[in-house]
Design a protein that fits this description.
Layout (H helix, E strand, L loop, with lengths): L3 H5 L2 E6 L4 E4 L9 H13 L6 E3 L18 H20 L4 H8 L3 E5 L8 E2 L4 E2 L7 E10 L6 E11 L6 H20 L5 E2 L2 E2 L18 E6 L21 H11 L11 H6 L2 H11 L1
Parallel strand pairs: 2-3, 8-11
Antiparallel strand pairs: 1-2, 1-4, 5-6, 7-8, 9-10
Helix pairs in contact: 2-3, 5-6
C-alpha cells in the first residue's frame, strides 16, 4: 500500500540457459500457479517455447528478494519485473540463440528492481496519494434457497464477474476465482468462530466447518479484460479479490427475500431470528 513496494524494493533475476532461461524469484508456489504464470510471461517475452524456461526453487540463498507472496502482487508486480528482465535479455541476444550467446560471451544474468509508475504519487508523511497503481473490480450475483423447516440457506447458482486486466493463464485465473468464491460462501454461511474465555473454542476442522463441493453451487466465472499499462501483458492481481463478493451477495439475496440479517455467517439460527417473514406469518396465524 502506498510506498510499500518502494520499501520492499523487490528484485527478480533471469539467467540465460542453453535452451532458454531460468527464473530466479522468491515468490512461493502454494497452488496458485505462480511457476506456470511466471514461465509463460518470460517465454512469451523472450520468444522461446514454454518448456525452455526453468523456474528455480524459491531458496533465499539462491534467488533475490522478490518480496512476500501476498497482496495479489505476484503476477502484477513480480511478473512485470520478470518481463522487464526478459525484455533486456532479448535485446542483448539480438539475433543470437541462447546457446550461441553463451558460447560467445559466457554467462548472462539480468536483474531488475521494482519501479513505481511515474504517474503514481504517494506521500509517506501525510499518508495520502495513490494507495495502489490500479484496482481489479468484481461483481457477484447469487440465487439462494431457504429450507422452510431448517432455515438453512443454500446458494443454487452464482455468477461472478472479474475485471483482472489480462488473464495470463485463463484456466488458472478461473481456478483462483472459483476457489476464492467457495471460501466466500463459507465466510457468508457456515464459518463461525466461537470464543470462550478469550480463546477460540472451535479451532479444529471437526468443529470449525468449511464448505465442501456439496456446499458450493455451480459458479459461472466471467473475466473482463481491461489491460493495465504497468502489468505484465496488462495483467492485474486476482488472488484475493474473489473472496470479497460472495458474502455481501448472499446477505443481500436473503434481505431481498425478507430476512433482516446484520451479521455473518448467516447460520440457520440467525436467519430464523432475523426473519421478517416469520413474524408476518405469525401475525396472519393469530388473526
Amino acid at each position: 500500500t502506498g510506498g510499500g513496494e518502494l520499501k520492499l524494493a523487490s528484485k527478480a533475476s533471469l539467467a540465460l540457459t542453453e535452451r532458454g532461461a531460468r527464473i530466479l524469484v522468491a515468490s512461493t508456489e502454494i497452488g496458485q500457479g505462480t511457476r506456470t504464470m511466471h514461465a509463460q510471461i518470460v517465454a512469451d517475452t523472450l520468444g522461446v517455447p514454454y518448456d525452455a524456461i526453468d523456474v528455480n526453487a524459491a531458496d533465499t540463498g539462491e534467488v533475490p528478494d522478490s518480496g512476500p507472496t501476498v497482496a495479489s502482487r505476484t503476477c502484477m508486480i513480480v511478473g512485470r519485473i520478470l518481463q522487464r528482465c526478459a525484455e533486456e535479455m532479448r535485446a542483448r541476444l539480438g539475433t543470437m540463440t541462447p546457446r550461441q550467446y553463451l558460447r560467445a560471451h559466457g554467462p548472462l544474468v539480468v536483474t531488475k528492481e521494482y519501479e513505481r509508475p511515474s504517474e503514481m504519487a504517494w506521500d509517506d508523511n501525510s499518508y495520502r496519494g495513490d494507495a495502489y497503481g490500479t484496482y481489479g473490480w468484481a461483481c457477484d450475483v447469487v440465487e439462494v434457497e431457504i429450507d422452510p423447516d431448517t432455515w438453512q440457506a443454500k446458494p443454487t447458482v452464482l455468477t461472478t464477474v472479474h475485471e483482472i486486466g489480462k488473464a495470463i493463464h485463463p484456466m488458472l485465473a478461473a481456478g483462483q476465482i472459483e476457489g476464492g468464491t467457495a471460501q466466500g460462501i463459507g465466510y457468508a454461511l457456515i464459518e463461525e468462530v466461537v470464543m470462550r474465555d478469550g480463546r477460540m473454542a472451535n479451532c479444529q476442522l471437526t468443529n470449525y466447518i468449511i464448505p465442501t463441493t456439496l456446499d458450493t453451487p455451480p459458479i459461472d466465472v466471467v473475466m473482463l479484460e481491461n489491460p493495465y499499462t504497468h502489468g505484465p501483458f496488462g495483467a492485474k492481481g486476482v488472488g484475493e479479490m474473489p473472496i470479497d463478493g460472495p458474502a455481501p451477495a448472499v446477505v443481500n439475496a436473503l434481505r431481498h427475500a425478507g430476512f433482516d440479517l446484520r451479521e455473518i455467517p448467516a447460520t440457520p439460527e440467525k436467519i430464523m431470528k432475523g426473519s421478517t417473514l416469520k413474524s408476518q406469518l405469525s401475525t396472519v396465524t393469530e388473526r
